[in-house]
Each structure stands twice: as structure tokens, then as C-alpha cells.
Amino acid sequence: MTILEAGKDVVIPSGSGLIHVYRIGFINKDDASDETELDAVSLSDLEELWRSLCPEFNCDEDSVEYIELVGIRALETDEDALTDEEFSAIATWTHSVKLDEVFDVVSNKRFVDYDGNKHISIKEGMQEIADAMAYHPKHDLCDNDAEIMVNLLLKYKVMTEKQIKNLPLD
Question: Mapping DSSP to helix (H, G, I), strand (E, B) and coil, where does residue 13 land?
Fold first, then answer.
């Protein structure tokens, strides 16, 4: 089944400030049963996340066996804080240094950590970026994107001004 088919009567929209955790059982391309837990605020959110992770899970989009609601938690307060420009700058930078193999910024402007297969806060995502900047001095950012990234690193207090001055952002 697809996520839409399996989640039709299971996945419910999250209330304000909440996110649901779903366990998804599926058959991978090795014909073995597998399962994962994903966070989502709606069926379309879960479907988008599932589709983005299928290559990582080595499965087809229609390999879903079941979906269960296994938890509810508070949504991070800063999840909606990214502007379109910030979102674009982060997506460009993470792609240019191949950090998008570790986590991604999905269209609803939240980070997805592929290791834990879960949404992470913007602050956690910015910390991942700050850590990676030390190992990836080369980048493909235009001046405006570089300025946006610097402002985000300062805003979320994951780097100091002194650390940022030592970055090769020219």
C-alpha cells in the first residue's frame, strides 16, 4: 500500500503545537519486513517525508504494510521561524557540501535527520550546519546566502562571532 492508503484511517492532523509519531511497517527491496518511526503533522506531511526517505530505506513508495500512531509530542517552537530566504540559503549550503545526505530541509521548513528518521528543530539543524562548516570550508553560496547563514548561526547561538570570522565565507 501507499502511505495515503495505509494512513487513511490512522493518520490524523496534529493540533496546534503538536506533532504525531507514527510507526510504519514496510517490505524493503530485499523482500524483508522492516519498520521505522516518523514524525508528521498531517497525512500529506507523512507522505512527503516517506517519499523522501524511500531510497534510504531501500523500499518502494507502495511497500507500506501498516501505520500505527505511537506517540504525540510538542512541536518545537522555532519550527516556523525560517523565512523563504533562510530556507533557500540553508538548502543551497547543505546540498553544496553534501550535508543533504545526513539531513534535509523539507518544504515545510523543518529539518529531517536521516540517521534518526525524524524531524529535528531548527536549532539542532543549525548546530549540524555549524559542526559541518569546520569540515567543509568550500561552499557554493552567493554573498546574500552567506550573510543569511551567518545571521542564522548567530540567531540560534550555535557559533560565536569569533568562530564565524574564522570561516572562509568569501
Answer: coil
